[in-house]
Amino acid sequence: MDECCIGVAEGRRTVGKIRNIGTCIGLGGGISAFVLLVITGFTPLVYFIWAGFLSMIIYFASGGDKDWKLCGRMILSFCCGLLWGQLSNQIYVHIFPYSTYAAYILDYFVLVGMLLWVHIALLGKTPFNHVPSVFLGLALTIGFFGRPFPFAGQGICGDFAPGKIVLYLLFYMVFGLVFSLMINYLTALFAKGILKKAEE
Q1: In contact, 91 and 103? CB cutoff 8 Å
Q2: In angstroms, rounded to a whole number, what is the distance separating the alpha carbons of residues 177 and 100?
Q3: How far is CA 139 from the centre of its chain?
Q4: Do 166 and 46 touch, CB atoms closer than 8 A?
Q5: What is the pTM of this model?
Q6: Which of 66, 15, 16 has its CA nearest to residue 197?
Q7: Contact at 8 Å (CB) between 48 and 172?
Q8: What's the pLDDT tens digit per position in 88-147?
Q9: Strand runs (DSSP E) across the chain, as ranges?
Q10: Burial of 191 by CB count in 10 Å (0-12 exposed, 13-18 middle, 19+ buried)?
C-alpha cells in the first residue's frame, strides 16, 4: 500500500514537472516568435517566412539544444545544397529541352546519388556533412527558382534576380536557426525560475 502511494506521488511529481517544462518551452517559443515575426513583418521577407521554419524543424530533429556547432554545420551544408540546386537547374535548362528521360536520369539518379556519396563518404568527417541541410538547400533552390526552366519567373519568387533569391534563402536558413536558439536559451532561462520554484 505504501509503495503504491509512493508511486502515485512520484507520478504526480513527474506530470507536474512535464507541465512546467512545457510552460517554459511555450513561453520561450511564444516570445521568440513574437519578436522575430514582428521584426520581419515590416519587410518583404515575411512573404516567404515559412521557409525559415524548415531549418528550425531540421535543427530540433537533429537534437539541437543550444548547439552552435550544429548550426555551423547546417549553414555550411545548406550552402552546398544551394550549389547542388543550381546544378540541378542547369540540367533542366540544358538537357530537358532535348530529352526528358535523360534529364530525369541525370537529375534524380546521378545527381542525388553523387550528393549522398560526396557528403557522406567524402565529406563525412567535415562540417559539410549535414545531409538534411544539403537537401533543404537543393529543394528550396528548385522551388524558389522554378521548374523546368528556371530564371523565367516560374518559381516561388517570380522574376526576382538570381542573386536576390540566394540571399533570401540564406536569410531564411539563418532565421530558422536564430529562432531555434532563442527558444533554447529562453526555455533554459525560464526553467531556472519555474522548475526551481516548483521544487521548493
Answers
A1: yes
A2: 37
A3: 12
A4: no
A5: 0.84
A6: 16
A7: yes
A8: 988 988 888 889 899 899 998 999 999 999 999 999 999 999 999 999 999 999 889 887
A9: none
A10: middle
